[in-house]
Amino acid sequence: MALHFTSEELAGRRARAVAMLQARGLDGLLIFRQESMFYLTGYDTFGYVFFQCLYLGADGRFFLLTRAPDLRQAQHTSVIDDIRIWVDGPEASPALELKAMLAELHLHNKRLGVEYEAYGLTGRNAMRLNAALEDFCKLEDASDLVSRLRLVKSPAEIVYVRQAAELADRALEEAHRTAGPGAFEGDILAAMQGVILRGGGDDPANEFIIGSGRDALLCRYFTGRRKLDPKDQLTLEFAGVYRHYHACLMRTIPIGEPLPGQLEMHKVAVEALEACKTALKPGRPIGEVFDAYARVCDAHGHRENRMNATGYSLGTTFAPNWMDWPMFYHGNPEPAVPGQVFFIHIIIFDSAKGVAMTNGQTVLVTEQGCEALSRMPVDLVVK
Amino acid sequence: MALHFTSEELAGRRARAVAMLQARGLDGLLIFRQESMFYLTGYDTFGYVFFQCLYLGADGRFFLLTRAPDLRQAQHTSVIDDIRIWVDGPEASPALELKAMLAELHLHNKRLGVEYEAYGLTGRNAMRLNAALEDFCKLEDASDLVSRLRLVKSPAEIVYVRQAAELADRALEEAHRTAGPGAFEGDILAAMQGVILRGGGDDPANEFIIGSGRDALLCRYFTGRRKLDPKDQLTLEFAGVYRHYHACLMRTIPIGEPLPGQLEMHKVAVEALEACKTALKPGRPIGEVFDAYARVCDAHGHRENRMNATGYSLGTTFAPNWMDWPMFYHGNPEPAVPGQVFFIHIIIFDSAKGVAMTNGQTVLVTEQGCEALSRMPVDLVVK
């Protein structure tokens, strides 16, 4: 069995989820977030691209409803014993099959939580679920229940986070090795991803961000790689991934020589990064991390060049998104707690001049403040 | 502007979507599938992990509502001129902002189609959308509208599909080069992904499937790589990806020597693959492709060892899923049409003996039948 946590740790997580269900007066939870399934049972798949539900009762009972290709997947990767299969066909109606299974558990007229905020539960499937369970039981959104548990990492999880961070550092070393005038972006990406996969890591939950020239001011992946110019700028935002735990880094690398203003922007970015780390303190609302970023940017005349958010939690996220809940934006009241892992990204994009500067680190919240999970300096590296 | 199709081709696609809206009596479409956005406008992002909507009216008008990090992304990758931004915050309500925009377009009491079957529209956001637009306009599921248009590829698209197929072939060559007794799965993955990225390709919309030993009987990715034993079996299912177009291949590679039964299973797999290709004919229901797979497996005593589906359409899919609509399962009435691209995967897993055999090719439906988009033989390769 390819379990990456002890059965005891997984059982403890389910026990805490059950306690939260009971505290909320819920009789069970319909789980659609793959990260929740992995967290509670070890179950590891991308089968959530079709209708798939893990039920966890307030009595601790749990079963999985999925398609045939995931039967063995669940057997090989998880502690789930009770695996049920629905079959594709023009008349397939897995939500109705789920209803019948819930009826067998005497859940008629009971209250169930639902993870509605899940890529694995498309709008269409959510509406079918609601229609199937209408007049059967009361449903309420409990998307946050397991996500809240996942937010603070256990010692066993932090081991994997640190391994992910080491893979991210190696990927940055590969970027420094391969970037330079005339380099092909595809070769840079291949080197970065390669060192992670060779290190036993996983694909990231979303693509690495790579952009140069005017596209160095983008912060999403897009298709179509180019060669770097003799004088250019290269923005990279990427994750080391180990056991699906993500640790991110971000850098803009001037090619040839820094563009006008880029040296100053780098100083501001590093100052902002340090201010954000100082603001990330146990007990303080994480919205203050954004405020620190904004304050430093604004003080240096970069108000128009900053983003509306400056990072987010990281964990065992699955495609299409490594950005875990919650996010650093103004006013976010969630408190920082030791054991949380966040990515702080500092983005300063001067649209008027077409100049980018970024920096970023993954940090672990400690009892005193936070610890950067990277051995790579934040200094400007020109290639 | 990094457009990968001419503005005329993109305009033609929108004109066909508009014609379908009019034919269905719809006044507009709320688009949440990233593949639809890419298809209609070129817009290329993973920003759909947050609330994001492209509106296309039956009058041809279109605008995008997204978050700030995607403003430049839309400007740099698409033909969308009208880009509107919603801002994160504890009180953020993008669905209500969307309603206000629709009201400006005088869509009160009109009929709008919605792409509810979208990873970019989670159950929670769909329910918020429905609540925001209740009593404002009539909504109906039109998830299939653009997907139907996307199903038949244009000549310009087929150029990219063929490039993707070439990258898949190179990845298989890398697998043959690196697989063998003692090889580390992570090194194999790195070599396969590396040749695709160096060739200007993209990340796949879901992870490559790699499994050995007992996990060679899985057909999903999972974390945790191992070294191959002196006698082993390695199952690989992967995609070359170019401009987000996918071309898949699948193979099981015996390591050291074939396991008992594996030679016979390979013969059956190849016979089934050929039978599927013969069954994929313009005008015939694609469910018959599954029937051909089932018939060959059953005739050779592998009824218990086969799947409930044997492949699916391929196209410009985005994470978390490269499996496009529609799928080869029994009774699927969708007709094959020239210009469609399908992945036929033949999977025979003997659970009792723990032996796997797979094969698979991407094919293009032609006027006469179908054409395999791979130059790699389907012969058994033992490493």
Write down the secondary-structure element order of chain A. Answer: HEHEEHEHEHEHHHEEEHHEEEEE
State the fourth-level CATH superfamily of the largest domain in chain A. Answer: Creatinase/methionine aminopeptidase superfamily
Question: Sheet bearing the most strands of chain A, described?
Answer: 8 strands, antiparallel
> How does CATH name the architecture of the largest domain in chain A?
Alpha-Beta Complex
Helix/strand-derived category of chain A reads: alpha+beta
Q: Name the shape of chain A in a single word.
A: elongated
* CATH class identity of the largest domain in chain A: Alpha Beta
Q: Roughly how much helix do the residues of chain A carry, as a percent range?
A: 25-40%
- Mean pLDDT score of chain A: 97
Oligomer category: homodimer
Summed up, the helix count of chain A is 10
Number of domains of chain A: 2
Largest interface, chains and sizes = A-B, 87 and 87 residues
Share of residues in strands of chain A? 15-25%
InterPro entries (chains A, B): Creatin/AminoP/Spt16_N, Creatinase/aminopeptidase-like, Creatinase_N, Pept_M24, Peptidase_M24B
Protein name (chains A, B): Xaa-Pro dipeptidase
Describe the structure.
Two copies of one chain form a homodimer. The first copy, chain A, is of the alpha+beta class and 383 residues long. Chain A folds into two domains: 7-150, Creatinase/prolidase N-terminal domain (Creatine Amidinohydrolase, Chain A, domain 1, 3-Layer(aba) Sandwich); 152-372, Creatinase/methionine aminopeptidase superfamily (Creatine Amidinohydrolase). Chain A contains ten helices and 14 strands. In chain A, the strands form two sheets. In chain A, strands 7, 8, 9, 10, 11, 12, 13 and 14 form an eight-stranded antiparallel β-sheet that branches. The model of chain A has no long low-confidence stretch (mean pLDDT 97). At the A-B interface, α3, α5 and α8 of A face α3, α5 and α8 of B.
